Amino acid sequence: MAKKESLSDQKINEFLEKGIKQLFKYHSHQSFNYKQIASRLEIRDKLTRERVIKILKTLVEKEFLVDNGRGRFKLNPEKSNFVGKIEITKKGSGYFIMEDGKDLFISARNTGTAFDGDIVKVKSASKRGRSEYFVTEIVERNRKIFTGIVHLNDKFAFVEPDDPKINADFFVPEGAMPSKIEDGQKVVLEFLEWKNPDKNPVGKIIQVLGFPGDNEAEIHAVIATYNLPTKFPKKVVEEANQLYKQDHKKEYKNRRDYRDVTTFTIDPHDAKDFDDALSVKYLENGCYEIGVHIADVTHFLQPDTALDKEAIKRATSVYLVDRVIPMLPEVLSNDLCSLRPEEDRFAFSAIFTLNDEAKVLDKWFGKTVIHSNRRFAYEEAQEIIEGKSGDLDKEILLLDGLAKKLREKRLKNGAIEFGGEEVKFVLDKNAKPKEVVVKSSKDANKLIEEFMLLANRKVAEEIGKKEGKAKTFVYRVHDKPDEDKLASLKSFLSYFGLKLQHVKGKAAAFALNRLLKSVEGKSYEGIVKNLAIRSMAKAEYSTENIGHYGLAFEHYTHFTSPIRRYPDVMVHRLLQHYLAGGKSAYEKEFALLCRHCSNQEKNATEAERASIKYMQVLFMVEHVGEEFDGVVTGITPWGFFVELEKTKCEGLVSLDNMDDDHYHFDDRKHKLVGKRYGREIHFGDRVLVKVLNADIIEKKLDFSLVDVYENFD
């Protein structure tokens, strides 16, 4: 009887098989013997080499490999088609994303009819002894809606796409456009077909937005580009209105009554949807009962209703500069669910007993009814923290002290403190920007953040740390950083005298914190933070808990914003189900929803950034010819990018606009050097620039260099 493999043996074999498969996929036209494979995979011990031999035989049996004789193996030609996502560059070339996150380069002539983000089938072929890759089939289109500028002819038209990664104009045949349309207008186009890469893709114009530069036209172009909904279906509105008309007071008896406990909200001054409130109760033993009360959306949002289906589809609220595209109709998001002051509201609460050291002594989760006594803007709470007397100042100061202790514990445990700044706009009556405000996180913001983190962590632990078989749950996970990316970051920073220790796992978090601490207050602080963030994995939703690296939590979820995030709705339902003694939910259903929500979150983030970029350029239109202080954020062979200090607007100083010398790009040291006078431009230099042009069509700014204040090094 054959010996059964242990779990560790299975894991090792799975890891080796994956590595061998990737090796042959990268070198699809080469053959290898087992010694060469072991060498490529850096395998030196005899036992593991024997495993490699067994796996090779198994892969031949599975027809993934073919045995060429004399112990040499090659990828089966029939298995050399790969299916995955392609990313297209502005120059037309592409990168095919492999399973392990690495990519294959595909030249512009070989991308076929692929658009950026499409799922494609790629085949390799040998050319001059090297593997070359071709897109052979479009498996699934990433998008079918595009925006651009229409150029009219007698009976047809072309649409020049806004997206610079679309390297072909769309052909619009006769009859595929509205009768009322003018040359040069911005339009929304629906893609129809693209059969031949030597010809133009075909589409039809489904909406005329207006002329380029018009505020409504540009924002609606963002909405169309990212496929954001503009209104709720009739059935959804009807269900929401019906909920509003119902009398919900009979529900009070089913909940813990917290209406007599001091409760308040702290939010942005212009907020309308209040997801969370805090309550404070002083206990006789000298401890504190702190309530984190979250809008009980799931009381109103029932499964399988039109409301719920639309919320799933949207998955998140999207916050563009001049408008919000909510996940829920306003009658719910801004009224029934919102924890507004001086009104009874339903909440799903996390109640904690804390001592003076912010240690959690006891906890309770459940449905409550609350009554917020006061609504604070962050600015008002911050004034109290800084010493101003005011409403509930004792409670705010208590929470601030506890929050600082919670934060200190997190950082000691390895949480990474990225911080960061947020760009906000003051808009006029026509929704055009009249001022750019850069806001940083202050103690009032951190107060709310810490108690939301506490609630999210403790909810995740309530389910994830239970003894016995793990139950299906929705986690917010963040993987450890890729070692290659950290090594690249370390190498890049070393050119500028910045040190990042080459360590792995949790130690890397402490090393990153030391790096961030060393650049605090420097002109290039924000740039280094952005570089560090890019080296990290992206947080996402998953039913598989791998912990949250950035926060240094073994268990973490999103529980605190169900008005604007569907994952929080799932968490509320699952938590209530398990508190009531329910069995584990169907994991696959929630895994699919997690993937969908992660994708929608990414799409919303990109849309928000696009609206910010447009507003920044629009703001700078009124400042062409003016001079601003900035910091060099990037160096290229054709110029360098500068971020303005006061507005965070970024633009390009082209070498074509630098006539004081002829500059060349030193790619090894990441700098520009003047050949005649030796002037150098470095990453992180503080400079004075003049605004030459603000192009609201291409969403870009052009600067000229006036002076260099100080060099980074």
UniProtKB/TrEMBL annotation:
<dbReference type="GO" id="GO:0005829">
    <property type="term" value="C:cytosol"/>
</dbReference>
<dbReference type="Pfam" id="PF00773">
    <property type="entry name" value="RNB"/>
</dbReference>
<dbReference type="InterPro" id="IPR013223">
    <property type="entry name" value="RNase_B_OB_dom"/>
</dbReference>
<keyword id="KW-0540">Nuclease</keyword>
<dbReference type="InterPro" id="IPR011805">
    <property type="entry name" value="RNase_R"/>
</dbReference>
<dbReference type="GO" id="GO:0006402">
    <property type="term" value="P:mRNA catabolic process"/>
</dbReference>
<dbReference type="Pfam" id="PF17876">
    <property type="entry name" value="CSD2"/>
</dbReference>
<dbReference type="InterPro" id="IPR012340">
    <property type="entry name" value="NA-bd_OB-fold"/>
</dbReference>
<feature type="domain" description="S1 motif">
    <location>
        <begin position="625"/>
        <end position="706"/>
    </location>
</feature>
<dbReference type="InterPro" id="IPR001900">
    <property type="entry name" value="RNase_II/R"/>
</dbReference>
<dbReference type="Pfam" id="PF00575">
    <property type="entry name" value="S1"/>
</dbReference>
<dbReference type="InterPro" id="IPR022966">
    <property type="entry name" value="RNase_II/R_CS"/>
</dbReference>
<dbReference type="InterPro" id="IPR003029">
    <property type="entry name" value="S1_domain"/>
</dbReference>
<keyword id="KW-0694">RNA-binding</keyword>
<keyword id="KW-0378">Hydrolase</keyword>
<dbReference type="GO" id="GO:0008859">
    <property type="term" value="F:exoribonuclease II activity"/>
</dbReference>
<dbReference type="InterPro" id="IPR004476">
    <property type="entry name" value="RNase_II/RNase_R"/>
</dbReference>
<protein>
    <recommendedName>
        <fullName>Ribonuclease R</fullName>
        <ecNumber>3.1.13.1</ecNumber>
    </recommendedName>
</protein>
<comment type="function">
    <text>3'-5' exoribonuclease that releases 5'-nucleoside monophosphates and is involved in maturation of structured RNAs.</text>
</comment>
<dbReference type="Pfam" id="PF08206">
    <property type="entry name" value="OB_RNB"/>
</dbReference>
<keyword id="KW-0963">Cytoplasm</keyword>
<comment type="similarity">
    <text>Belongs to the RNR ribonuclease family. RNase R subfamily.</text>
</comment>
<dbReference type="InterPro" id="IPR050180">
    <property type="entry name" value="RNR_Ribonuclease"/>
</dbReference>
<dbReference type="GO" id="GO:0003723">
    <property type="term" value="F:RNA binding"/>
</dbReference>
<dbReference type="InterPro" id="IPR040476">
    <property type="entry name" value="CSD2"/>
</dbReference>
<keyword id="KW-0269">Exonuclease</keyword>
